[in-house]
Design a protein that fits this description.
heterodimer, A: mainly alpha, 12 helices, 2% strand, globular, B: mainly alpha, elongated
């Protein structure tokens, strides 16, 4: 069983490396590299009085920026020259991909194009906002889904249950950005209901307690959006599994013994219905991280999702590649967690000692 | 679809709405709109909806950049028809073909002659040496020859008589799907669109690339069940060529769940594409879609009409697609 687990993890790790390599290489091969964007910014804003540079000096400046960012080297181990001759060249280890992979092994994710900061530092700062948000959303969503699932599986077919199920399936197809935008416009709009802060800075001179309170209020709406997007994914399969289990023979026997329906559902059906839910757990963390991309941009939280979105908008490729790698790592963690929990929850899977 | 399913009012509503969106999207260049979607009306910035009896008015208001919301809605519907719909069609076809082949032949079913290995190496070498169009022609001719050979080859022989090696189709498909599934689709889309603004065909290809693994997994799983059914065995016993069994007998059965899956896949892609447009990544400034209209909302929170109409259109479209998918799924379950 350990071998199976290792093989599974190994496959997931290879997939993570492959997708990060794909994003890395495709970002380096795109036309209009970051040096052009950087120089365009510089000529637009910081030196408004200088005249348009001649072609030669502009090319020299671009080359200097490329060298500084480490883009002077060839992209991959072999490349094809763009000239009509179209010959193939072998570059050995002196290429960008090799440097990136080596840096990755040493824990160095590169430096941001925009401000030259190490990507690890940027990501670490962002995670101090994202991780509490995502983990709280996961915990809240899981608890709510459990309660809601038990209620919806048990309640007789009245209009409340119908409405709740219809609402959940409507939520399932609603994109998170639409949901979060609706929340923002309804609850944090100075022209409508201004209940919660959704942007801006913490009040100056705030002490510890006030700061905590401020961030709690700030993260209430993003949290609500994430939990609402998570609920249908968790609840609908649970309801289906609970109903399926409630029709099994052992549940009938338990009811025939005179146990109440709620007790049968909670103590007899739930342990079996929970098992398929553990598979959903694998996708929970990466889904939440993808959700934070939208939610953090909308609610102006300086977390990892916003970092990724802003880096993508500014062609800051090292940060983008690091974001992809981090999300893939989160999925790996989810996979590991789900497998371990399977062992804990289901005694049938444990090796006979 | 059964007539009884169509008789329900919600289903009719969903169907009518989708037809309406499709018609508006198709006929967008010929609709008599008072304003164009791209040209801003700088005299009317973020004006509320108005109905003036004299002259053209902004019936649904304008956004904070002065663009007409009604024209933006129509442009968004056209983008849906020209971008999301072809992307889903492409992804579903590619996924059905790849998943069907992987489920039918598995890792050991498809044998190529060892001579084919040399041909493959030669093709790789040619691909590295030749310009792209010639490579496409050579690969296409090779695939055609292979398909023809399999169309004619009787399947009852357990193994072709020549020295052969098996193509691990199943592993290749699952590996590709695992790599693309290692990261949520939105994150991957944001990362791959991080370059300069994408053209419409590029974005279409990117969306199709993200969407095909789901369809492929579905068809593969279905194909594994279909393959064990007696009529496939009978076809094999009858000595039909493997390619013909796959195309005529197995694939139509394995693709049936796709009918219900395609609308859901379309809803997912529309949501994904709108989210990308909302974030403003990989989009030219002149591209107008429902997502980019919603994004301008953040500049003027008081202008409810900028968010209400595109948001409503997007939500109703997605709900209608979900409803249609559910109805088709039920009717598939009912007719064996």
């Amino acid at each position: 069983m350990a071998g199976w687990l290792l093989a599974r993890l190994g496959r997931a790790m290879v997939a993570a490396w492959a997708i990060a390599s794909l994003v890395f290489i495709s970002s380096r091969l795109l036309p209009g590299g970051p040096e052009q964007a950087l120089l365009a910014d510089a000529s637009d804003y910081s030196r408004p009085t200088t005249t348009v540079r001649s072609g030669a000096s502009q090319q020299a400046a671009q080359q200097a920026v490329r060298e500084r960012l480490g883009l002077g080297l060839p992209v991959f181990y072999f490349t094809r020259s763009a000239q009509p001759a179209q010959a193939w060249h072998w570059h050995g280890t002196a290429n960008q991909y090799h440097r990136w992979a080596l840096g990755l092994l040493r824990g160095n994710l590169g430096y941001s194009y925009r401000d030259g900061q190490p990507v690890v530092v940027l990501l670490g700062q962002a995670l101090t906002y994202t991780l509490p948000l995502a983990l709280t959303a996961a915990a809240l969503g899981g608890a709510l889904a459990l309660g809601l699932g038990l209620y919806l599986a048990r309640a007789p077919g009245g209009w409340v249950r119908q409405a709740a199920l219809a609402l959940l399936s409507a939520l399932q197809v609603t994109p998170l950005f639409l949901l979060a935008l609706a929340l923002l416009l309804a609850l944090a709009n100075p022209d409508f209901l201004d209940l919660l802060p959704a942007a801006g800075q913490a009040p100056p001179g705030a002490t510890g307690g006030q700061l905590v309170g401020y961030w709690l209020a700030r993260s209430a709406l993003p949290l609500l959006g994430l939990v609402l997007s998570l609920l249908p994914v968790l609840t609908l399969p649970l309801v289906a599994a609970l109903r399926h289990e409630a029709q099994a023979d052992y549940a009938t026997t338990a009811r025939a013994k005179g146990l109440s329906a709620a007790w049968v559902l909670r103590r007899h059906a739930l342990p079996n219905a929970l098992l398929p839910l553990l598979t959903t757990l694998t996708d929970l963390l990466p889904t939440l991280l993808a959700g934070t991309v939208v939610v953090e941009v909308l609610f102006a939280l300086p977390g990892s999702g916003r970092l990724l979105a802003e880096a993508a908008a500014a062609h800051d490729y090292p940060v983008v590649v690091a974001g992809v790698l981090f999300t893939a790592a989160a999925r790996l963690l989810g996979l590991l967690l789900a497998d371990v929990l399977y062992f804990v929850v289901d005694p049938r899977l444990r090796p006979a000692a | 679809m059964k007539p009884s399913a169509l008789a329900r009012p919600t289903c009719w509503l969903a169907f009518t709405w989708l037809v309406l969106i499709a018609l508006v999207g198709l006929l967008a260049p010929w609709l008599p709109l008072p304003y164009s979607a791209a040209a801003p009306d700088l005299l009317h910035i973020a004006t509320p909806p108005e109905f003036s009896p004299t002259g053209p008015a902004h019936y649904l208001g304008t956004d904070p950049l002065g663009r007409d919301v009604l024209a933006g809605l129509v442009a968004g519907a056209r983008r849906l028809i020209l971008l999301s719909l072809p992307a889903v069609a492409l992804a579903t076809l590619a996924g059905a073909a790849a998943g069907g082949a992987a489920g039918f032949w598995g890792n050991r079913g498809l044998h190529l002659p060892v001579a084919g290995l040399g041909g493959l190496l030669a093709a790789v070498w040619w691909g590295l040496a030749l310009p792209a169009p010639a490579v496409a022609v050579v690969l296409g001719a090779g695939a055609l020859a292979l398909a023809l050979a399999y169309w004619r080859w009787p399947s009852r022989l357990p193994k072709p008589p020549w020295l052969a090696f098996a193509v691990p189709l199943d592993s290749l498909l699952l590996g590709a799907a695992t790599v693309l599934g290692a990261v949520p689709r939105l994150v991957l889309l944001v990362a791959l669109a991080a370059g300069p603004p994408l053209t419409q065909p590029q974005l279409l290809g990117l969306l199709a690339l993200l969407a095909w693994p789901e369809a492929a997994r579905l068809v593969r799983g279905q194909m594994l069940q279909v393959q064990a059914l007696p009529f496939i065995e009978a076809a094999r016993a009858g000595g039909l060529p493997a390619g013909r069994i796959w195309w005529h007998h197995a694939l139509p059965h394995a693709c049936r769940p796709l009918l219900a899956f395609a609308p859901l896949s379309l809803a997912g892609l529309i949501g994904l594409e709108s989210a990308l447009a909302f974030l403003g990544i990989g989009q030219g400034p002149d591209v107008i879609s429902w997502g980019s209209l919603l994004a301008t909302m953040r500049q003027a929170p008081a202008a409810w009409w900028v968010a209400a109409y595109p948001g409503f259109a997007l939500l109703v479209t997605l709900l209608a697609l979900q409803k249609i998918a559910r109805v088709i799924g039920k009717s598939i379950l009912q007719t064996p």
